[in-house]
Design brief:
CATH class of the largest domain: Alpha Beta
Shape: globular
CATH architecture of the largest domain: 3-Layer(aba) Sandwich
CATH topology of the largest domain: Rossmann fold
Structural class: alpha/beta
Length: about 260
């Protein structure tokens, strides 16, 4: 086992740090929220967050809504990589085996997901299209709605076209268009929206992804292209983990219903 693995296990093995990682796995959060969830004072939580940041498991981003505040973001891909390689270094039998995906009827939905953006935030991607594309890559079908900008920047169109997503013909949608609809997950992609996010019927799971707006980067289209690329990559990664989580939850719910019916 390498020094990197030992450090990771030492970081994740602490009860409070594991609790912080678990909370950040479901949503980006501010330190005050983490203190309330963990029931610990801020100085202690901040100390352990700094340990996780130094270990490369967590990053911090200034809030776009209030620059005096910050959101903490968990690097799920990095955690997964370290967990897998640590197990493999202990014994070959601990190499993760891909989980088979349950067969579904054509047209069946995993979940209904709503992505929220600030109306002035010129977003990179049609998150609805990104989610559906990611679901199709996994042989599933899903439903999602997104509040997207009325005009997509040329750089955004270019970046998403390279990922097989066409933004042509997309239009801006107001939140009240979805007032009568029900969602399983509501995900805010802008710190400003998160501050004013309304209540939704049937209490969907609320998730926040503190993703910087690449359109705010200064410079020409070519100069801002890396920012758009980074945002697209982060979205694809997060959406992939989201679909895996939704699929696992759906599978467990279906198994529980089957057990109740058979009993």
């Amino acid at each position: 086992m390498t020094r990197v693995h030992r450090r990771f296990l030492r970081l994740a093995g602490h009860p409070l740090r594991w609790r912080l990682l678990s909370e950040l796995a479901s949503s980006d959060r501010r330190v005050g929220e983490l203190c309330a969830l963990a029931g610990r004072r801020q100085s202690l939580v901040s100390y352990h967050l700094r340990q996780l940041r130094d270990g490369g498991l967590v990053s911090m981003r200034r809030s776009a809504a209030d620059g005096r505040d910050s959101y903490y973001v968990l690097d799920l891909a990095r955690c997964g990589e370290l967990l897998s390689s640590a197990g493999a270094s202990l014994h070959p039998g601990l190499v993760p085996i891909p989980r088979p995906r349950a067969a579904r009827e054509p047209g069946s939905a995993l979940a209904r997901v709503l992505f929220l953006l600030h109306r002035q935030q010129r977003s990179l991607a049609d998150r609805r299209g990104a989610l559906r594309a990611a679901v199709r890559r996994r042989g599933e079908r899903g439903q999602a709605r997104a509040a997207i900008p009325s005009r997509c920047m040329p750089t955004a169109v270019r970046v998403m076209r390279e990922r097989g997503i066409d933004l042509a013909g997309r239009r801006s949608k107001r939140l009240d268009e979805f007032a009568a609809e029900r969602f399983d997950y509501v995900i805010s992609l802008c710190d400003r929206v998160r501050e004013v996010c309304p209540e939704f019927p049937d209490w969907p799971e609320l998730i926040h992804w503190s993703i910087p707006d690449p359109a705010r980067e200064p410079g020409s289209d070519e100069e801002t292209l890396p920012a758009f690329e980074r945002t697209a990559t982060e979205l694809c990664t997060r959406i992939g983990f989201l679909i895996d989580a939704i699929e696992q939850t759906t599978t467990e719910q279906e198994a529980n219903r089957t057990c109740l019916t058979s009993s």
